[in-house]
Design brief:
Blueprint: E1 22-24, E2 29-31, H1 33-41, E3 50-52, E4 70-72, E5 77-79, E6 93-95, H2 96-110
Length: 117
Amino acid sequence: MRSNCLLCAPGKAAPTGVPAVVRCVALDLWLCELDGKLHGVRVATRQHRLVNLPPLPAATCATHGDSSDWICTECRETYCVHCTKDVHRGHRTCKMKNYAANLVVAERYHSYGTAAR
């Protein structure tokens, strides 16, 4: 499960929170579509770089169709217990709820040495 927008307080407009679709690199904020657009036009934050969060894969195994909450980070596919024995054997994996966060960490690691926009 993806993180929710950090500016939309649960309980007001959306009791369960609003899913984040972009991330501000400068402030490390996860934002919904509306807050992302506003962040991009406000004087104080319009110079910040916004990164689209990747779409989350389906919560079913791509090969067998079984329910799954794991993803192969090498193939970027969800998988089930049967796949760990053959298709994704030895691959790096993570829980689906950590997938987007792991991509953000990887992006931050690869962007060291470049100026934030």
